[in-house]
Design brief:
The complex is a heterodimer of chains A (161) and B (773). Chain A has six helices and five strands; from the N terminus they run ββαβββααααα. Chain A is α+β, with helices and mostly antiparallel strands. Chain A has two domains: 77 residues, Beta-grasp domain (Ubiquitin-like (UB roll)); 76 residues, DNA polymerase, domain 1 (Orthogonal Bundle), CATH 1.10.150. In chain A, strands 2-1-5-3-4 form a five-stranded mixed β-sheet. In chain A, α3 packs across α6. Chain A is globular, with a radius of gyration of 16 Å. Chain A starts with a strand and ends with a helix. In chain A, 56% of the residues are buried. The N terminus of chain B is likely disordered. In chain B, α11 runs parallel beside α19. Chain B has three domains: 165 residues, Aldehyde Oxidoreductase, domain 4, CATH 3.30.365.10; 188 residues, Aldehyde oxidase/xanthine dehydrogenase, molybdopterin binding domain (Aldehyde Oxidoreductase, domain 4), CATH 3.30.365.10; 214 residues, Aldehyde Oxidoreductase, domain 4 (2-Layer Sandwich). Chain B is α+β, with helices and mostly antiparallel strands. In chain B, 30% of the residues lie in helices and 25% in strands. The longest helix of chain B is centred in the C-terminal third of the chain and has 28 residues. Chain B has 20 helices and 29 strands. The chains are: A alpha+beta (161), B alpha+beta (773). At the A-B interface, α2, α3, α4, α5 and α6 of A face α2 and α18 of B.
């Protein structure tokens, strides 16, 4: 077996030190070592987006980043973004518009949507659809997801005055 | 239509657009799927070794390197199976592991059990299969040439269609090919098996059919069914792909648990999942039609050639359902619907939302288009002319369509809502002046038969307990795959007891609670399980009412359950208090409910009867633009009107319609399965197999419910909604064909499904004799 590598990173605000195999990807590390199972494994090809997490504030595919690459960096998962309350309105909109069915894609969808919403303003629906098009959903047909993102954008813009 | 006042007052959750029961957990990422469950101490991981070739005799399986690989605890082959090497739903033709004959590329040869998933997957690649290769049969034509089938040919019909076609003023015929579809459930196949005492095993499986998982695990392990429990809390999507084809992975995990005495988990890698599990059936359809000057069909003769793969799996029911939907919504006076279930050396095709129905309907819509084009008529006019009507209302299988008026009302309303006629005219003008871009529009109906066509499957069970504190435990035989079944059934039960939804605790489906269940399939989940749960709840409520009546000294009919309380006039007590009193008075507060669908009776040998309790209707109007230089297609606008009876939950139903439509859109436009001449699936990953994403969905997407109470006595007069909306996407395919037809009016459009850009471009070239520049 290959020797493990020591890494130190911040996960949802907490410092984590671990010994990991060099080829272990970040999604497996989060799920198997830290029991953060809200990061889902869909395709392991970097296509479906179910394993989306934030690395130093940028969204990445958890299956395309190795845990060792996250050494010294800050990782945020759906659990962290949920606990901090930053997603609350977006989560409410997803629930109210029924923008989820099986729920497997939902954590990745939320983090991807939040990246767009963080730019501010109210993106038009075409912009939302393009931005979300890297995340697969096999259940909803996306209409409700786009609606929920649009609603959140409007509400945030209104709250900013 | 409005409910009457008494019902409106009594019902508090049913018919309301409540969110999915797990919505809060889903947005937090805290709803556990099988792979998220805490692994028991000592859990081992399983990976499967695959056949390197599609058709061969296995001479020797050299697993020395596999056994020697790091982390490997056990290696399992067919020789290690204590029971039967058979994971089939019924026909005995699906071996769990290859013994002597390799039947398709990537078939399971053996399994590796190791300390980590990584170690198991690496070791699984080290197996060496020495084989004698045979030439694989891959296509419909290969199977026809070999006269190879998995099940006998089957046909039904009436009259003498050959003679009627001959006699008709106009005749047309053709061949149409329809592609298959990969389920691409986001959560792949997965199972966790935990060994128990006396050889028993508890299996957590991502399956639509826990009973079949239980039975197959027992069969493979040589155990009585009672030694195996299968549990399912939720799936990350299924769509039919986890009906019969979840069993193999659960059975392998269970065998590994038996062999090692430790918990064992098997989660398929995505490429393996796509290569090793079956898909929607692809078809070649050969058809001939005779019709009059108006486009009224006199006779149809259709032959459906289904590529079933190496085994029967569910192909009897799937292809039967194709045949049941080969009329789409149209009366066919003389008709023969024939089918062959062809055997190829490829993965065994299986259930997929619509279960063969979509292929039957799409083929018929193509026939209608061909008739209309040949007469220079609008296809919608030909659809209307042939739509089921009074005196023209008996299907090719002898069932009378009693509520065709519902279908017609939907067609009428959607034609108006979508402004079809004006847009048709505007598109004709556009096409007359646009040389490169062409637009098309189509409005197509949906009529989908509801019930399992295997009559015995039309039953369900539920188990309801009321505890002494008034909280309610709800269990039923249906499984939750995202469709909101648990929420709908909870709404029904809460209303029976007149309590708040928070009192009703939804629990995981388990073969230990409700036995001998049918799969959650055929759109039947809420129809069947909702009824069974209501029957159970009502029985408990009646006993509670009797107890309350005796305490108050009134008749049981005077007792009312509402607002979380139990009333006699204005007097009353809390629901919890009555539950406690019932316990004290030794009144049983648990009930197993059972429901069997009435009226259905299908005689397959005679080809006649009533396979369906009722039909669900719908219609969609789609408008597309195609680029004749590139074959690219854009879906500009979609209008949908869909029949849900009186919706149990309009929010969930809208979600089913939007999602079903988009899944159908993928099937017909972007999702293409490619097998090479060696029988290998070349599109076994999302890099080469394209499901719709958010940017593929029409910018203008208008979905409305048609809420007309079901004429049959279904649960709260609702209708099933799981599968029918998928076929709304037939309108997209027909709109693309319509756009192509504008290039050469009057000519048949040479377009097979899926209408990928390549297929559209090829059709342009065929119609125009080359790109022309």
């Amino acid at each position: 077996m290959t020797a493990t590598v020591s890494i130190t990173l911040t996960v949802n605000g907490e410092t984590v030190r671990a010994e990991v195999p060099p080829r272990m990807h970040l999604a497996d590390f989060l799920r198997e070592r830290l029991a953060l199972t809200g990061t889902h494994i869909g395709c392991e090809h970097g296509v479906c987006g179910a394993c989306t997490v934030r690395l130093d504030g940028e969204i990445v595919r958890g299956c395309l980043v190795l845990a060792v690459q996250a050494n010294g960096m800050s990782v945020e998962t759906v659990e962290g973004a949920s606990d901090s309350g930053e997603l609350q309105d977006l989560q409410d909109a997803f629930r109210e518009r029924n923008a989820l069915q099986c729920g497997y894609c939902t954590p990745g969808m939320l983090l991807t949507a939040q990246e767009l919403l963080a730019k501010g303003g109210v993106p038009d629906r075409e912009t939302i659809r393009e931005h979300m098009s890297g995340n697969y959903c096999r259940c909803t047909g996306y209409q409700a997801i786009v609606d929920a993102v649009e609603t959140t954008a409007r509400n945030r813009a209104a709250a900013r005055g | 239509m409005q409910p009457n006042d008494a019902e409106a007052a009594a019902l508090r959750h049913v018919h309301k657009p409540l969110p999915h029961d797990s919505a809060v957990k889903h947005v937090q990422g805290s709803a556990p799927y099988v792979d998220d469950l805490p692994e028991p101490e000592g859990t081992l991981h399983v990976a499967v070794g695959r056949a390197p070739i599609a058709r061969a005799r296995l001479q020797e399986l050299d697993l020395k390197a596999v056994r020697a690989a790091p982390g490997v605890v056990a290696v399992l082959t067919a020789a290690d199976i204590p029971g039967r090497n058979d994971v089939s739903p019924s026909m005995g033709d699906d071996p769990m592991f290859v013994e002597r004959e390799i039947l398709f590329h990537a078939q399971a040869l053996f399994a590796v059990v190791a300390t980590t998933r990584e170690a198991a997957r690496r070791a699984a690649l080290l197996g060496i299969a020495k084989t004698t290769a045979l030439k694989p049969r891959v296509t419909v034509e290969d199977a026809l040439a070999a006269d190879a089938t998995v099940l006998p040919d089957y046909a039904f019909g009436r009259g003498d269609p050959a003679a009627e076609i001959e006699r008709a003023p106009h005749r047309l015929g053709g061949t149409f090919r329809i592609g298959g579809q990969e389920h691409f459930y986001l959560e792949g196949q997965v199972a966790l098996a935990i060994p128990g005492e006396d050889g028993s095993v508890h299996v957590q499986s991502s399956t639509q059919h826990p009973t079949e998982v239980q039975h197959v695990v027992a069969r493979v392990l040589g155990l009585p069914d009672a030694f195996v429990t299968c549990e399912v809390r939720r799936m990350g999507g299924a769509f039919g792909g986890k009906e019969s084809q979840a069993t193999q992975w659960a059975a392998i995990a269970a065998l590994a648990a038996r062999a090692t005495g430790r918990p064992c988990k098997l989660r398929l890698d995505r490429d393996d999942d796509m290569a090793m599990t079956g898909k929607r059936h692809d078809f070649r359809v050969d058809w001939q039609v005779g019709f009059d000057d108006e486009g009224r069909i006199a006779a149809l003769d259709s032959l459906f050639l289904a590529r079933c793969g190496y085994s029967a799996d569910l192909s009897q029911g799937v292809v039967d359902r194709t045949m049941f939907h080969a009329d789409s919504s149209y009366f066919l006076p003389a008709v023969r619907i024939a089918s062959r279930r062809l055997k190829t050396d490829t993965v065994s095709n299986t259930a997929f939302r619509g279960f063969g129905g979509p292929q039957g309907m799409l083929a018929m819509e193509r026939v209608i288009d061909a008739v209309a084009w040949s007469l220079g008529k609008d296809p919608l006019d030909v659809r209307r002319l042939n739509f089921y009507a009074a005196g023209r209302d008996v299907t090719p299988y002898g069932m009378t369509v009693e509520d065709h008026a519902t279908g017609r009302r939907i067609l009428d309303e959607l034609e108006e809502r979508s402004d079809y006629r004006a847009r048709r005219a505007e598109i004709a003008e556009f096409n007359a002046r646009s040389t490169i871009l062409k637009r098309g529009i189509a409005l197509t109906p949906v009529k989908f038969g509801i019930s399992f066509t295997l009559t015995r499957l039309n039953q369900a069970g539920a188990l309801v307990h009321v505890y002494a504190d008034g909280s309610i435990h709800l269990n039923h035989g249906g499984t939750e795959m995202g469709q909101g079944l648990n929420q709908k059934v909870a709404q029904i039960v809460a209303d029976e007891f007149g309590v708040g939804l928070e009192r009703v605790r939804i629990t995981a489906t388990s073969t230990g609670k409700v036995p001998n269940t049918s799969p959650t399939a055929a759109s039947s989940g809420s129809d069947l399980n909702g009824m069974a749960a209501r029957i159970a709840a009502r029985a408990i409520r009646d006993r509670m009412a009797a107890q309350a009546a005796s305490e108050w000294g009134v008749a049981p009919e005077a007792i009312e359950f509402r607002d979380d309380r139990v009333f006699v006039g204005n007097d009353g007590m809390s629901f919890a208090e009555l539950a406690g009193r019932c316990c004290a008075a030794r009144v049983p507060l648990s009930e197993a409910g059972h429901y069997a669908t009435p009226k259905v009776a299908w005689n397959r040998d005679e080809g006649t009867g009533r396979p369906f309790f009722y039909f669900a209707y719908g219609a969609a109007c789609s408008e597309v633009t195609i680029d004749t230089m590139t074959g690219e297609m854009r879906l500009d606008r979609v209008d949908v009107l869909h029949d849900v009876g009186r919706s149990l939950n309009p929010a969930i139903d809208i979600g089913q319609i939007e999602g079903g439509f988009v899944q159908g859109l993928g099937w017909l436009t972007t999702e293409e399965l490619v097998y090479d001449a060696e029988g290998r699936l070349r599109t076994h990953a999302p890099s080469t197999y394209k499901i719709p994403v958010a940017s593929d969905v029409p910018a203008d997407f208008r979905v409305h419910l048609h809420q007309e109470p079901n004429r049959e006595d279904t649960i709260h007069r609702s209708k099933a909604v799981g599968e029918p909306p998928l076929m709304l996407a037939n309108s997209v395919f027909c709109a693309i064909a319509d756009a192509l037809h504008s290039l050469a009016p009057g000519k048949p459009v040479p377009l097979d499904a899926p209408a990928t850009p390549e297929a559209i471009l090829k059709a342009v070239e065929d119609l125009t004799g080359g790109i022309g520049f």
